[in-house]
User: Fold these one by one.
Assistant:
Number 1:
Amino acid sequence: SSIINRISIGKNTTIGAGAVVTKDIPADCVVVGCPARPIKFKS
């Protein structure tokens, strides 16, 4: 995974292997892809 720039990653968030994070990620979710996108929200 790569994190680009200064961003915020929420608590209890899972970032998939190889994901490229380019913007803030909310809490309680799973993100994957290039660019990283939420695919699932945890409850």
Note: The chain has one domain: 2-41.
Number 2:
Amino acid sequence: MMFADRRQRTPQRSWRHGSTFNRRSSMDNAPLTRHQRHRLRTRGQLIQAAVDLVLEKGYEAVTVQDITDRADLGRGTFYVHFKDKEDVLWSAIQDGLRATEAQAHEGFEGKPLPAQLEYYGYLNIFRHADRNRDLYQVMLGEQGSAVLTGRVLAYLAAENERDLKALKPRIYEGFDVPDRVLVQVITGAVFQSVRWWLETPNDYSADQMAGMLFKAIHHKDPPRSE
């Protein structure tokens, strides 16, 4: 239920976000060593190469060798950073979600209400998927990877389980459902809503989808920023 950046939605169809793949949390102000900077650059090169190739050729057609050739790096270097093709592509999604979440934490004015935390979590996911629509469709659609889909679901479930412990007493009071079941219901609703939204022709914006998801779960309109 990671809450999201509240800035104006900006349509974007390319995954290339400058230093997204090399970005650390702004809360970590310790200077990087030269070795650390080199590792981050190398990791970013591999992720960007993988993303570009998937968009060009489709998920199944891309190999580790293709990725290292495009990045002009050796296979040994690839395996220093990643286990396999799914790992590098999952890192692309995870890095983007974490970067968006970090920006939201920095930009939130005052202490957010529990309902705002949940709503902006949905908004974060939909906006990130919207900015990287093509990649999400390739990797998480019917022709994508079952392994990668499983990792996305596991990540969302872990985030939801963590946040539910804090949010349930305040906004899920009266939900007579075991936590582990509620986590799976919310996770499935988020994932399937995003997948349907990306794959089915419709005119709904990311903000509208997040609002409708919140309303479907809580039977009330989502909170608005102050």
Note: Residues 2-20 have pLDDT under 50 and may be disordered.
Number 3:
Amino acid sequence: MSESKGKMASLSMPEPPVQRALIEPMFHRPYMEGDFWYGITLEWMHSWKTYVGILSKKGSRPAGRRGEREKSSDGQGASGGSGGPPGGIFTAKLQHSHGLAMVPEDAWNTLFGWYGLADGHHIEKCAVYNYGDKVEIEVNHNPFKVMLSNSLKDPACECHIIRFSKAERVGHIEWKIRETFHVKRSVQTRLWGRLEGEDWQPLFDREKTIGKLLDIDSDFIKPDLALEVSDADSIWRGRPARAENTQMNAVGQFYKFSIFEDLSQSWEKDVHDQIDLIGRNLIQKMHQNFNNFMNRARDNLTERELGIQDSERHLEERENEIAEKMKLLEEREVKLGAQISQHNQNVVAFNKDREVMVAQMEEERQELKKNRDEFETEKKDFQDELKRMSQLHRIQESRVKLDIGGQQFTTALQTLQKEPYCFFARMFSGRHSMETNADGSYFIDRDGTHFRYILNYLRDGEVKEGTMPDNESFYNELLIEAEHYQIRGLVEHLKNLIRQCGKPKRRVSPGESPPERSYSTRVSGRSSGDSPPGRSYSPRMPVRSTGDSPIETPYSPRTSGRSSYSSYSSSTGTSSFGVR
């Protein structure tokens, strides 16, 4: 044993087969909203599974379930040595770890009772939350902007950012805000909340969770919370602007501890108390700094007021100067009268010249009208041509819905035709009659698990680094799909990756020889009607006649356990297309 027995173990440890029989079924439990799961490092979990016989001592570590990953983030050893039980449990935060196994609460309580915690590790408890379209472990707590609703009209109102779980009860959140703003216990309060851009909602039921009341479906939403304090006569007058006018009181009790603190040990609570003390000291210092800022602002305003008084004296002096200049302007007015008389004479001469210019302008206006008529004709022809081009562009950019083995994918027709000689370029070349399902999609009888990688390659024209799992088995599976869809650049890229792994890329059935093909590594820019220079490439796909079985013609070698043929069928089971 390289690790000593963990602290706080409270239960006698049974034999390894008994441990396995009790704990292993719990690992397959699905996520249920409201449950709690706990984080354990993969090293410790691997040591325990080896100890109880779930994994062989020489076997490779399987991919983890849910929170488990292939690599560990902390590199700490949790193994107990040669064949013995592991030491205290190693834990890690879900949002900071790349090697973590999540276990349900009853499994955690049992393991914790047997092994306890390793020194320096803490209980990492996570809530299961329903995000609307899926139920998952909550990785991050949302930041809430909290304030007093009675002071919202003040631009300099005090605000704080506090993180809460979406599964947290309103009773604890309201208690925490009351403590932040030092609200006395005898004073009644109620809580309001809103999402960005929405109206305030009453959060008067302290037993409900904040995520359900505000309909939060993401870890990155930053809601606002306003605590309303009642007046001395118990009348609610400080509700936020545009909030519902109601005198209803909040119901339910306050909760001093959050849903994650009920299992905390005494040493953990001491840490939280120290953090709270540091926070209160920080707030006091912030108040002191704010008061100093206000004093400096008042001094600055006094200086500005003195500056304004000096400006008023300068303004009076300028008014006297303006009066003297007005006298000079009157003298200049007399002189301007004489100049005006001369100007009137010039106007008479100008009128004569204007008549000549008007005649010339009329001639030019006729010429301009003629040119304008010609321009309007050309403009109409151009708009007609632009309209035809716009219609052609919309046809080219039309969306296509594909049903790949039951999974729906929607993309642009132009994306599917980027690879000129691929499966989809021939499918949508217009030379084949195709039928769609009832929902307008084209059904392709292939595994849809890897199709998103095929589609991303057609969109980007390349495989971006870090977008695919680094796994040879995955490369072989994706290669089969790429060969089926005849994506030459992706096939060549995957073959290079498999060669780098130093293992055979895939198996070939007895009596079957591998095909010899030459592929490029980028999506070609040639149209689907061209043929690649210097060689002949004639893939064949199945043809199905109405009411008959499909006539299948192989276009590539079969691989063990997978079909190398595709069929396209509608809801009526009628014919699809074939490309030769």
Note: Residues 335 and 541 are 100 Å apart (CA to CA).
Number 4:
Amino acid sequence: MPRKYKKYIKAIEKEVEALKKKRSLNEIISGAEKEAESEASSKKQQPPPKLPEKPSENKTQETLNKTQEALNKLLHSRSSKPNNNNTNVFLVPQAPRLPKTQAEKETTRRLIVVLEQACLETYKFRKSKNYELLNCDDHVSVLQKMGRTHSDARPDITHQCLMQLLDSPLNKAGLLQVYIHTARNVLIEVNPHVRIPRTFKRFCGLMVQLLHKLSISSVKGSEKLLRVIKNPITQYLPTNCHKITLSYDAKTVRLKDYLPVIPSDYSICVAIGAMPHGEDSFADSWVDEKISISEYSLSAAVACSKFCCALEDFWDVL
């Protein structure tokens, strides 16, 4: 075959291949267009998604009425129950009502705790000319100059006892009254509503202010939270009152067996020594008997807590 014909044949073959490629591309494009058209048609045939219906005013009013009825039933059921925990129907805690008149103090049954021989004494420093509460941690040299021991300056014991007593459920139920009788024969009445400072340093500052101003009032009103009162302690005790002293040397009793023996309409007065050690004859002139509540020697704070817990169980205070 001549060369010139071979050139023509190759050119024709190239044109044929180009036509084939062009045809295949057209087929692909047309197929894609058909698929797109079919998808669009199928979407048009499907119904649009339903939107959530807006609640009508009648339905909204019905739900509100049902909710109000349920709340009214709940409040009525709570108000019909006896209110033993000093709470109202809205579950807001209420402050316990304390006996104020002499008649109420005579008839209201409660626990009266007297912290005897409390180490609360102020000392004036020459350099700073300020008064501080004498304690064995900060005033060692002062105690040595005065010829006194560390046991004569332990106000931390009174602080611990007050926190145990005033934080107890018995006090929050309005069934506790606390008095402090210091080693210097100062008698202090503690209001059950007072909140004793948590830190010992702030407690010392409060006691210095009390011993010099003779009273501490609340910020909001004229209520006396702490005040110095006249001796003796017996004039503040009700007539129907069983008076005892906690002593390690006395006969040991179980409080759950001892408390039912006391008449049910009697208040209970407990004298507890707020000192590290020493004789327990501080209340022999006015107490009825001495008892021991443990076979072991207890600190004053533990004795306060143990007696309060026993009375909470006996008087059904939760």
Note: The longest helix spans residues 3-45.
